[in-house]
Amino acid sequence: MSIVIVSDSGCDLTPDEASRAGIEIVPMYVIFGAERLRDGIDIDRARFFTRLAREQPQTEPPSVEDYHRVFVRSIGAGRNVICMTMSSGLSKSYENARAAASGLDANIRVIDSFGASGLEVLIALYAAELAAAGATMEEIAARVDPKELKRATYFAVPDVTSLGRSGRMPKALVALGSMLGVSLVLKMNDAGVIGPAGQSRSFDKTCEIMVAALVRSIGRAPSARFAVSHVQAASVAAVVAKRIEAELGFPPAFISIHDATLTVATHMGAGAVGIFAIDPE
Asked: At what angle do helices 93-102 and 64-76 cross, to 10 degrees?
């Protein structure tokens, strides 16, 4: 049987990018008041950011029923499923996907990415690459297992307000960042939980600190792959991508730049930049 890779919209791939790679995205929900909107389907980026300027949305993961529909459709098409979700430390997406899979007599593997955004991009693309090369379910699951895969995630956030409001960051850290007027470097740890990793009064310096920390974490292996995601900060993201290459001392095997999905943008806030790396070898 063929294998389909499924991810939630914590993954920053666009619909076209996901389709070309053979990845199916199950949308999360962005909620403005009584409106429950599917990320990237019921609301586009322009309308989202217009509303974000005056309203603070909430987010919800795909429901058990959402995942169940996708799994049933894939099984009916004769495909096994590997599903990669946003970190269980940030969302119930993993829990809901597991619940959907448990009720089906089929070959479905649900994997907690212990990450989000660009990390989900890198792991989902790697899984799709392995599937296209003919790897088995067991081989793919073992190669992309975040507990075994060398990985690193850092964010630079000019304003911690959105993260604090969503509960994704401790209130004491939010208060510290606001009081001192600094931009923070944040790291996602091995359990997929966000914590502090540095700070600077200059956002440019913060990005420099972040890049150096990422390269120290992942190393300078030629096999390392990188992604940069941003929230309305395309020019900064392009500079950060060049800094990664400069810090490595050679062009990386793979590097991509993405707009953060609306789910990620809700919690990170405008101007945020995230950098991500995996080393499959």
From this structure: 50
CATH top class, domain 150-279: alpha beta
CA distance 210 to 187: 9
What is the distance between the alpha carbons of residues 258 and 79, in angstroms, rounded to a whole number? 28
Q: What is the largest CA-CA distance in the chain?
A: 56
228 burial (CB, 10 Å; 0-12 / 13-18 / 19+) is buried
Strand partners, 198: 185
Tokens of 77: 């098409």
Query: Cα(107)–Cα(139) distance, rounded to whole angstroms?
Result: 14
CA distance 147 to 125: 17
CATH topology assigned to domain 2-27+62-144: Rossmann fold (3.40.50)
Q: The whole model's pTM is what?
A: 0.91
Interatomic CA distance for residues 120 and 265, integer angstroms: 15
Residues of the chain with CATH 3.30.1180.10: 150-279
- Give start-end residues of each CATH 3.40.50.10170 domain in the chain: 2-27+62-144
User: Along the 281 residues of the chain, how does pLDDT read in single tens digits?
Assistant: 699 999 999 999 999 999 999 999 999 999 999 999 999 899 999 999 999 888 889 999 999 999 999 999 999 999 999 999 999 989 999 999 999 999 898 799 999 999 999 999 999 999 999 999 999 999 999 999 998 999 999 998 877 666 656 555 556 565 555 555 667 788 888 877 777 777 777 888 989 999 999 999 999 999 999 999 999 999 999 999 999 999 999 999 999 999 999 999 998 888 999 999 999 98
Q: Tell which residue, 151, 153, 220, 206, has the closest CA to residue 177.
A: 206
Residue type at 37 in one-letter notation: L
